[in-house]
Amino acid sequence: MLKTNKDKLPMISVQGAVSHPSSRGPRIDTEGMTHYLVGTGGIAYNAKVGDLATGWVADHLEPGVSSKHSDVDFNRAYNTYSCIGNEAKIISGDAKGDVGYVVGMHGGIEHVILHFADETLEKMVHEDKILVKGWGLGMQLTDYPDVVLRNMSPQLLEKLNIKEEDGVLKVGVAKIAPACIMGSGLGAPGSATGDYDITLHDKDITKQYDLMNLRFGDIVALTDADTRNGRTYQSGACTIGVIVHSDCVLAGHGPGVTTIMCALDHKIVPFIDENANLKNYL
Asked: In this structure, what CATH number is given to the domain that contains residue 56?
């Protein structure tokens, strides 16, 4: 088992509420066509972790429950302290006491995305309050100081399919994508929250890497992608992340990836593992 500093990490409460869907008006695709689409926010009853993240008649659809805090500063903490795999408990409304977990963060809209059982979704309404036990911010691998961890709970790290070999971490992923097709979110100053998008507009690359079969919750590798701090292209880098929202017709947009691990100089080597999805880990 990988050694970490998890015993030194504070577990702290952060709180959000189910966010109402937002509508940004018509979306224009790469051919100039206008689309009216369901967007971010709300409770998605028929889109959840493990389902396809592509092909939806939607714009950045978030699986399960979208949440945020109404206060901007508090929401920044909610997004930064929440880590994928953390426990999320509903603390108001008819679903009070039910427990789920964090499955991602969506930048721009600044949502924390949560998974709950179907029977819980049926009891939830907008503005239901949710308490997350934030645990994972600042986590480090004791024996691999050059590998940066982001947005990941100790619970998730212990479930990942990781093999240690000659100072390299080999990580099981559902899909691999090249950094040349990364879009929205590129150039952001930090990676301790939010996501950036795999664009699927180049049909040849999309087919080559089988990206139309991406699923919500997939663990994926982005080759030559450096997201240790900001998000940029760097030969030899590798980012491991989680698919957190669906594709989109907009140029420069597509399924979103929240970083959980990154290193330079081929210190991370991905291999295909068809079971590499949050549905199988959490």
From this structure: 2.40.10.170
* 120 within a domain of the structure (yes/no): yes
Query: Is pLDDT at 25 greater than 90 in this prediction?
Result: no
Say if pTM beats, i.e. exceeds, 0.90: yes
Tell me the average pLDDT across 58-63: 94
145 is written with which tokens? 């100081």
1 part of a folded domain: no
Angstrom CA distances, 190 to 32, 108, 195, stand at 32, 13, 10
User: Is there a single domain that holds both residue 166 and residue 89?
Assistant: no
Report the C-alpha gap between 142 and 282 in whole angstroms.
Answer: 24
Q: Are residues 155 and 272 in the same domain?
A: yes
Given a cut of 90, whether residue 24 has pLDDT beyond it is no
112, two tokens: 């924390």
DSSP 281: H
CB count within 10 Å of CB 70 equals 10
Q: What is the DSSP letter of 11?
A: P
Q: Can you point out the beta strands (E) in the chain?
A: 12-18, 27-28, 34-35, 43-44, 64-68, 87-90, 99-106, 111-115, 129-134, 148-149, 162-165, 168-173, 175-178, 196-197, 219-226, 232-245, 256-263, 268-272
Q: Range of 117's domain? A: 6-134
CA-nearest of 60, 65, 21 to 43 is: 65
pLDDT the model gives residue 1: 81
Given phi > 0 = left and psi -120 to 50 = alpha, else beta, which region is 138?
left
The pLDDT value recorded for residue 93 is: 97
